[in-house]
Amino acid sequence: MSTIVRKIITSPLAPKPVAPYNQAILVDRTVYLSGVLGLDKNTGKLVGNGAAGEARQALINMGHILAAAGSSFEKVIKTTILLDNIDDFSVINEVYKEFFAKDYPARSAFQVGKLPLGALVEIEAIALTGNVETVCVESTSSEK
């Protein structure tokens, strides 16, 4: 039986985790990113400009972690967005589209009771590494 390698991914360009977890774990060709907050790497504090500002910074941080794992936004297959206030949903979508321009990943979004450090948004993701081909399939059959 072959050994499966569990590789811990850390990017010095993204903030250190705020609790006992890693930025990401790579298993085979799948990267599991922990929830990413809109923290400034240098200060360890949340950036300003409300949910949009935090989401943008969280996605910038996510980009650094994806790159450290040998992945990118184009290879993300699933995201989960945790919101302090679901009313920020449309604002977050506008920022999200700056990073995910087409062939969007699957996604869930939830309003939660409270996020770490009083954050307004947290985003986690699952991505692939290596060569990835995206194929769009649209069902042409109608269910009766």
N-to-C order of helices and strands: EEEHEHEE
The number of helical runs is: 2
Largest sheet: 6 strands, mixed
Helical percentage:
10-25%
List the quaternary state of the chains: single chain
**Structure classification:** alpha+beta
Strand fraction: 25-35%
- Gross morphology is globular
Mean pLDDT: 95
Strand order of the largest sheet: 1-2-3-6-4-5
**Which residue ranges are poorly predicted, with pLDDT under 50 across at least 5 consecutive positions?**
none
Query: Can you count the beta strands?
Result: 6
Structure description:
The protein has 144 residues and is an alpha+beta fold. It is 21% helix and 26% strand. It has 2 helices and 6 strands, in the order βββαβαββ. It has helices at 50-68, 89-99, and strands at residues 6-9, 24-27, 30-37, 76-83, 106-111, 121-128. It has a 6-stranded mixed β-sheet, covered by helices on one side. α2 links the parallel β4 and β5 (106-111). α1 (50-68) packs parallel to α2 (89-99). The chain starts with 5 loop residues before the first strand and ends in a 16-residue tail after the last strand. The mean pLDDT is 95.
Condensed summary:
The protein has 144 residues and is an alpha+beta fold. It is built from two helices and six strands.
Key attributes of the depicted protein:
144 residues, alpha+beta, globular, single chain
Secondary structure layout plus pairing:
Layout (H helix, E strand, L loop, with lengths): L5 E4 L14 E4 L2 E8 L12 H19 L7 E8 L5 H11 L6 E6 L9 E8 L16
Parallel strand pairs: 4-5
Antiparallel strand pairs: 1-2, 2-3, 3-6, 4-6
Helix pairs in contact: 1-2
